[in-house]
Design brief:
It is an enzyme of class 2 (transferase). The protein is built from 19 helices and 22 strands. The protein is an alpha/beta fold. The chain folds into three domains: 4-245, Rossmann fold (3-Layer(aba) Sandwich); 251-272 and 418-526, no CATH class; 275-415, no CATH class. An eight-stranded mixed beta sheet has the order 3-2-1-4-5-7-6-8, sandwiched between helices. Helix 3 (66-75) links the parallel strand 2 (58-63) and strand 3 (81-85). The longest helix is centred in the last third of the chain and has 16 residues, at 509-524. 44% of the residues are buried.
């Protein structure tokens, strides 16, 4: 991330203003209970308030930026609008006992590190006071939603534009449970096409009524903001079964039920392997070296083979041949490892390299300056495999054949002893496994899927004996070639057939591939 002072004002404010069709839709929903008091905790220029057509309503609008707050009264025709030019967390701390009939908001997307100390304190209090956990992963929008719902009267309505993180990330689990405890009606609308094309973040609409008891739950996927549904015509459905994530809501109900009812088909990935984050060097340009750089600074005795980029490997194995090929292309294929090395014993050219970095203040970066010796990277170890962190068409599980290490572009995978690696590879690229990888990750606009180490707990593999001695060398060689096509359907069909024929794993592979196609297309097309 860039330092805070280099971020744009929009990023720090966290704001992307709401298109009028959405504002009109949310207002139509909340006005059904004839609200008299309305709160907009992140008002911006008043975009969400423009459709309000009842002059008897009192509106409290909170906006942090003076220039935007000045636009609110110009953009709406309601005389009873009180604009607070302040930070919402500060305002909430002073007004938390107030209650409203309705809340409309597109809360800001602000990472924890960009909050002030006071904002962090108030955010933590909001979460803890509502039986939720506070941590550094939680984005400001979560606390906005919790605070807004807490200020609703019983029977009050809420209409929100919020990140699809609600469905996809682990840190939003507490928020989902909070909503289920506090809303008697919960409606979620997902979009196939981007609401805000200028940002990678994807968004959903959340509409609800405050009240106790098991909520009436509805979810629908629509094409875009011009295809918003009549909620009265949408059937209620059971609450999502997966408490960790609700990513599967993009699937039709019958396909979600298929997954829930076929738990006998799978084995937990974490029963066979452990996933940890790759090496955080703190300064990749300094520590990641080309072959030429290694020779120029006399570092050949102080480097390890490195897998640092997704384009550095296009098959199932990172081996000596691929390492040499990448080195000849001038890629950074070596990691400088100076652990347990005395500075005075290093070659003079390498010492000069370190001194030059210090002269250029490389060592002042946060992750470097907190080390005892800034150029000694902690936690360097060689994994059996690598898992790509941010994927496009297809996940990458790569077997380490050259004792390489990786930066945090890849996660490090430890595989249990005696697991049949070839069988694990075939299983990982089966339709069943790829479905659960899609559901485990967090998708971004543009089609990327991010996998964090904790997400591997949601990975599923076909339920077979992974310790059996079976020769799959021929099949893995074919798979290695297929992987280079990046075609999930072709790859998974081959692996499904191998599982059926070679290890007698019988399952509805066609249905899994159908689900995989839907999940993949939904992600890639956004």
């Amino acid at each position: 991330m860039k330092e805070k002072e280099t971020q744009t004002a929009r990023k720090l404010r966290g704001g992307y203003y709401t298109p009028y069709p959405i504002a009109e839709y949310l207002w139509k929903y909340v006005k059904e209970n004839n609200p008299k008091q309305v709160l907009e905790p992140a008002a911006g220029d008043g975009a969400l308030l423009k459709p309000i057509d009842n002059s008897d309503i009192n509106i409290d609008a909170i906006e942090y930026q003076d220039s935007e707050a000045e636009k609110i009264n110009k953009n709406i025709n309601i005389p009873q609008v009180k604009v607070y030019v302040t930070d919402f967390f500060k305002w909430f701390d002073d007004h938390k006992i107030q209650e409203y009939d309705a809340v409309l908001s597109n809360p800001p997307y602000i990472r924890y590190q960009y909050l002030t100390d006071r904002q962090r304190t108030i955010q933590s209090e909001i979460l803890v006071d509502n039986s939720m956990r506070s941590n550094r992963l939680i984005n400001a929008w979560v606390a906005f939603v919790v605070a807004a719902i807490s200020m609703l009267k019983e029977g009050g309505r809420i209409g929100l534009v919020i990140p699809s993180d609600l469905l996809q990330v682990t840190y939003a689990k507490d928020l989902r449970q909070f909503m289920l405890r506090n809303l008697k009606e919960l409606n979620i609308i997902s979009f196939r096409n981007a609401v805000f094309p200028e940002t990678e973040q994807r968004f959903i609409l959340l509409l609800g009524i405050k009240g106790r008891g098991e909520p009436k739950f509805k979810h629908i996927v629509v094409d875009d903001i011009h295809d918003l549904p009549d909620l009265n015509k949408i059937s209620t459905e059971p609450l999502p079964e997966n408490s960790e994530k609700w990513s599967d809501l993009v699937l039709p109900r019958r396909e979600r039920e298929f997954l829930y009812s076929h738990k006998k088909d799978w084995e937990l990935f974490n029963n066979l392997a452990n996933v940890e984050v790759g090496i955080t060097t703190g300064a990749n340009p300094f520590f990641s070296l080309t072959q030429e750089q290694v020779l120029n600074i006399d570092a050949k005795d102080f480097v390890r083979p490195l897998l640092g980029r997704s384009v550095s490997v296009n098959g199932l194995f990172y081996n000596k041949e691929k390492l040499i090929e990448n080195a000849e292309k001038g890629q950074k294929v070596w990691l400088l490892d100076l652990n347990n090395k005395d500075y005075i014993s290093l070659p003079i050219k390498l010492r000069n390299y370190i001194s030059e970095a210090e002269h250029n203040h490389v060592n002042t970066a946060y992750k470097l300056r907190i080390r005892n010796i800034w150029y000694q990277i902690p936690s360097i170890w060689v994994p059996q495999a690598f898992l790509l962190r941010r994927i496009g068409n297809l996940p990458k599980l790569v077997i380490n054949k050259v004792n390489a290490v990786s930066t945090d572009t890849f996660h490090r995978v430890s595989i249990l002893d005696k697991v049949n690696i070839n069988l694990l590879l075939i299983a990982f690229y089966s339709s069943l496994s790829l479905v659960y990888v899609e559901l485990a990750g967090r998708s971004y606009g543009g089609g990327a899927l991010e996998i964090l180490p904790g997400d591997s707990s949601q990975f599923r593999l076909p339920a077979v004996n992974y310790y059996q001695s079976i020769d799959l060398n021929k099949e893995v060689k074919i798979l290695n070639d297929l992987i280079k096509t990046s075609d999930p359907q072709k790859i998974s069909k081959f692996c499904d057939e191998v599982l059926k024929e070679k290890v007698d794993f019988q399952f509805d592979d066609q249905q899994y591939r159908k689900i995989l196609r839907k999940l993949h297309q939904f992600r890639i097309n956004n």
